[in-house]
Please model this.
Amino acid sequence: MKYTVVTSFPVSQWELYGEKFLNSFIEYWPKEIQLLVYCDGYPLPEDIPKADNITYFDLLENDDLLEFKERNKQFNGVQDAKGVYNFYEDAIKFSHKVYAQHMAFYKAQNMESDWLIWLDADSITYEPITYELLDEAHGDKDDICPDVTFLGRKNAYATCTSYIGYYLKSDVTQVFIEDFVNYYNSDEVLALRSYADNFVF
Model:
């Protein structure tokens, strides 16, 4: 199967985790797998790695994202009267991740990929990733692919969305990604008890 990977990070966080993510991807992932990187904030760092299988995009060129952020700038995780940050109330931060996935979904379809894999940019790969491992994680021995794969959690407020696989040949998956982003386009996310993307997912 053909895979495309997507991630996103603020350029301001390049030295904290973006650099580690990209360098480990270059070292351990197959060179044929394309990585789409949606950065919020330009210009890119001078030392950002260049590779034939990595493409950088300016996430802040997405008008829907910019409009969502402008309409809802007060939902930045500091609604508390004392100004204490609350991860669960930061709709602005987590909207970046969802809009990046939505944009990459259609790019990966146009690239005729079978799967789009979202990886959080604070992830680091420590060992070689093989096609055998990816195929095993995204399909079964009968070649029946799930619509979406993710890292499940038990006894938690929401699942883990550090890793999500979208099967691009599925009509169900396309409906899902549109519903996912429309929670933000419609501001419906603000009616939920948590604005974090994993809860919305």
Notes: Residues 11 and 77 are 20 Å apart (CA to CA). The chain has a mean pLDDT of 94.
